[in-house]
Design goal:
This protein has a 5-stranded parallel β-sheet with strand order 2-1-3-4-5, sandwiched between helices. With 217 residues, it is α/β, with parallel strands linked by helices. The chain folds into 2 domains: 81 residues, Methionine synthase domain (Methyltransferase, Methionine Synthase (B12-binding Domains), Chain A, domain 1, Orthogonal Bundle); 119 residues, Rossmann fold.
Length: 217
């Protein structure tokens, strides 16, 4: 007989949205710690990632998983904010992330944002179609450790390069690490844009951030 937590992980991994949200509320009502709930989400997303790699799941399933996580996050985040005040919870670093200008895709970015929050990072999400100036202004205001540039369309690669060139021109390029992700990003695009690394999925993005901020595996 499975436990409620095992049912929870399975419901997310199996894309059973109604059941996942129902159990989320049950766990909240039972006084479960927010980070414990999000830890179960992380376990579920690891299963989703494995199924994607094994071609059991495809882009529609990833989009659905992102939507489920977003709804769970809406329920859990208020509890995290309340519990974090005065809790002394360690924040590993600050990650500024956004979809570059000209691109309106955000599913991948939203999953990365959520997974980074699960792993103890402060994430500032600038949204979609983010101008170079908006990135520069947000960097000046927040002093991030890492900047993430997301884009799904091929035209986003030019926007990524333009944004990174602007960091160089502003003399701030060496103040933080830059990761890119989305679409057909590969080593060639990495070299073209001048970023430090690319993540092929959300967990790879998390691993990069953990490596760069010296967080133990």
């Amino acid at each position: 007989m499975t436990t409620l937590k095992e049912d929870y992980v399975a419901s997310i991994a199996d894309m059973d949205e109604d059941k996942a949200l129902e159990i989320t509320q049950q766990l909240i009502d039972a006084g479960e710690a927010p980070m414990e709930i999000l830890g179960l989400c992380r376990s579920a997303m690891e299963i989703v990632g494995q199924r994607f790699e094994q071609e059991e799941y495809f882009l529609p399933e990833l989009m659905m998983a992102g939507d489920i996580l977003e709804q769970i996050g809406a329920l859990v985040r208020p509890l995290m904010d309340a519990n974090s005040e005065g809790s002394g919870q360690t924040v590993h670093g600050t990650v500024l992330i956004g979809t570059v200008h000209g691109d309106l895709h955000d599913i991948g970015k939203n999953i990365v944002t959520f997974m980074l929050e699960l792993n103890g990072f402060k994430v500032i999400d600038l949204g979609i179609d983010v101008s170079t100036k908006a990135f520069l202004d947000a960097i000046a205001a927040n002093k991030p450790d890492i900047v993430g540039l997301s884009g799904f369309l091929t035209l986003a690669f030019d926007a990524m390069k333009e944004t990174l060139d602007a960091f160089d021109d502003a003399g701030i390029r060496n103040n933080f690490k830059v990761m890119i992700g989305g679409g057909q990003v590969d080593d060639q695009i990495l070299k073209f844009t001048g970023a430090d690394a690319f993540g092929i999925n959300a967990m790879e993005a998390v691993n990069l951030c953990r490596k760069w901020t010296g967080v133990a595996a």
